[in-house]
Design a protein that fits this description.
Strand order of the largest sheet: 3-4-2-5-10-1-11
CATH superfamily of the largest domain: P-loop containing nucleotide triphosphate hydrolases
Helix content: 40-55%
Shape: globular
Structural class: alpha/beta
CATH topology of the largest domain: Rossmann fold
CATH class of the largest domain: Alpha Beta
Number of helices: 27
Length: 661
């Protein structure tokens, strides 16, 4: 297509208009992406778009989504991106392009617990025995009262009642003014149903062209089949590299003895027979079985545990049947809550007792909470569910800065339910002899506005010993101190464990006391990030949250340290099960699961360094396996195309020059 023909396309024209109105500059990658998204929506064909940081991908998918004839859902992984879309990107775009005939309506849709509940605020909530809970006393009570006042103000002013807009609070305090979907009475039965914030959000979404939601709600709606989102034609999934993890998380269930006991106590008040007592007895049997079961993945369920799960399932089913039937005017929130708790126990125990090969069961006893050890169950894979329940019915656009691993899209596409053999050739129609169940898809890498080879160095410390099980050794700690010293602070340390991050922070504090060294966990992440940005002579060391969620452009961050290749733990029950399943299917489980997981995280971690066209710096990997192991090439091909070196002194010199300004 000629440049003049491309410029005449509606998507291209509207994008140019929006960019000009917003005072921006045309970016080739943004135009390419907008046209590809527009073509995919019009042709009802799935699309993967890798768009580097700084491309302007939000605008590139929002413009064609507004032009699409039907409703489009935009799903994000993080609240930060959702907030950016709703508070900045979409309002600015709407103001720039609004005109008669163009539907620019949009709405935000979140899970029910993200909205305040008027019934809970005005009527209270029952405890395990059905007695209404009074507001807590002391500082927590003051916070709850403040939140309640805010909720009433929101109701009076027509506000959204969203958690993110509320006065500062803790999760524990928010639970005093909200309910889960299981605890909700439902619009028809709640006296405040017409005023309900969550219901009003659903109504607004049903009237809107764009619906902005999150991966988890999309999974519940599309994969689990629970209607949460108004009917839609297509979905744009931003931060798509996180989608399989979010769907897995949404489809994971837990069962603990304390949960079964709590369900039995709540049911006792409403069930006249012995069914609640029998559920409590089943909890005792489950407690004994869990105590005797092995920690970790459970491939063959021990007989005692299998029998206990059946007991819990059957007792929960009987208790459900014993709840008295409700009449239209008979609204009792305590009963709704009690029955919902028993229903949840039944659903989870039934799933665990089924022993399906499609699920992985394990006992989590390492991080014992007040609820005690937990039995956990998760899907072995989600690509089949994605394919059958989302990709078959909707047009899906996947986009992220990280979709190409090992130099191609195949790994990520396969994990999402798209088969590499079904990828359509660029600019060619789908073959007429394609199987009827084929799901054709295209992929495009629109590049990045950054010149990585000039802006960034990839340093692999090949001379260091391979990382051991005991954490950071003297050689690694010496290397960290030398690099941080050369950079004069300005360091983001990404570590594979909290123990490693804390050990590195302690060493740097002791040997470089003139620098400020922060470690994740010492304060809330936003506060740590603020300190890191404000003082260039600062290091921030942490784990997974920092690998993916921190945006610090400028000379604040000129060195990103990665202590080791972030393979999943060998004893991770779900990852190890997926790796074994890939091996049994004739594939390479290590490459398909462990190496792919590591490549994704390394690409995200390395991406913390260059956030603008003027940023410069070094990504230093202290794991020599990136240079020496056979899989190292796959991992390096997944990283931004930085200038590579193994020369330690060259890197120290570069960092010193950057620090000197």
């Amino acid at each position: 297509m000629s440049d003049s023909a491309a410029a005449d396309r509606p998507v291209t024209r509207l994008l140019a208009e929006a960019v000009a109105a917003l005072g921006g500059q045309e970016r080739a990658g943004q135009v390419l992406m907008a046209e590809a998204v527009g073509d995919a929506l019009a042709g009802e064909q799935h699309l993967l778009v890798q768009a580097g940081t700084g491309t302007g991908k939000s605008l590139a998918y929002l413009v064609p989504s507004l032009l699409h004839r039907e409703r489009v859902v935009i799903a994000t992984a993080t609240l930060a991106l959702q907030h950016q879309l709703v508070e900045r990107d979409i309002p600015r775009l709407v103001k720039a392009v609004e005109r008669p005939g163009l539907d620019t309506s949009y709405a935000v849709l979140k899970g029910r617990s993200n909205y305040a509940c008027l019934h809970r605020v005005r009527e209270g909530a029952p405890d395990d025995q059905g007695v209404l809970i009074e507001a807590p006393t002391g500082s927590m009570g003051a916070e709850v009262l403040k939140l309640r006042e805010w909720v009433e103000e929101e109701a009076e002013s027509g506000g959204t009642g969203e958690k993110d807009n509320a006065p500062r609070h803790t999760e524990k305090v928010w639970r005093q003014v909200s309910v889960s979907a299981r605890e909700c009475l439902g619009r028809a039965r709640c006296v405040y149903g017409e005023e309900c914030f969550a219901e009003q959000a659903k109504e607004k979404a049903a009237r809107s062209k764009l619906v902005i939601t999150n991966h988890s709600l999309l999974a519940i709606d599309a994969i689990e089949g629970i209607p949460m989102i108004p009917e839609y034609d297509a979905v744009v999934i931003d931060e798509a590299h996180e989608l399989t993890a979010r769907i897995t998380q949404a489809a994971t269930d837990e069962l603990s003895v304390s949960e079964v006991e709590r369900a039995a106590r709540r049911a006792q008040r409403y069930v006249d027979g012995d069914q609640a007592t029998e559920l409590a007895d089943a909890a005792d049997a489950l407690s004994d079985a869990i105590a005797a079961a092995p920690e970790g993945r459970i491939d063959q369920v021990p007989a005692q545990l299998a029998e206990a799960l059946v007991l819990v399932r059957d007792a929960a089913r009987a208790a459900l049947g014993a709840f008295p039937k409700e009449s239209d005017g008979d609204v009792d929130p305590g009963r709704t809550q009690a029955k919902g708790g028993v229903q949840e126990v039944f659903n989870t125990s039934e799933r665990m007792a089924a022993g399906s090969d499609a699920d992985v069961l394990w006992l989590n006893g390492r991080e014992v909470s007040r609820g005690g050890p937990q039995l956990c169950i998760a899907p072995l894979q989600v690509w089949g569910q994605m394919r059958d329940k989302l990709l078959t019915d909707k047009t899906v656009i996947f986009t992220s800065a990280t979709l190409m691993l090992g130099g191609n899209f195949d790994s990520v596409a396969g994990s999402l339910g798209l088969k590499p053999a079904e990828r359509a050739a660029d600019d060619l129609p789908t073959p007429s002899d394609a199987p009827s169940d084929a799901l054709p898809w295209r992929a495009v890498d629109v590049g990045s506005p950054f010149d990585y080879r000039k802006q960034a160095i990839l340093y692999v410390a090949r001379h260091l010993p391979p990382p051991g099980r005991d954490g950071l050794g003297k050689a690694q700690l010496d290397e960290i101190v030398d690099l941080v010293d050369a950079a004069g602070g300005r360091t983001l340390g990404l570590f594979s464990s909290r123990r490693a991050a804390e050990a590195a922070a302690e060493e740097v504090r002791a040997r470089l006391p003139h620098l400020t060294t922060l470690a994740q966990g010492e304060a809330q992440l936003p506060e740590l990030a603020r300190q890191f940005v404000e003082d260039p002579y600062t290091c921030l060391f942490g784990t997974l949250t920092l690998w993916q969620g921190l945006d610090v452009p400028g000379d604040t961050c000129q060195l990103v340290l990665i202590d080791r290749i972030p393979f999943p733990r060998p004893d991770d029950p779900l990852m190890s099960a997926r790796q074994r399943a890939a091996d049994q299917a004739g594939g390479n489980g290590f490459m398909q699961v462990a190496a792919t997981h590591a490549a994704l995280l390394m690409a995200q971690g390395a991406g913390r360094l260059i956030r603008t066209t003027s940023d410069k710096g070094v990504v230093a990997v202290l794991d020599p396996r990136l240079a020496t192991a056979r899989y190292g090439g796959f991992l390096r091909a997944s990283l931004p195309p930085m200038w590579p070196t193994e020369d330690r002194e060259l890197v120290r010199g570069a960092l010193k020059r950057l620090a000197a300004g």
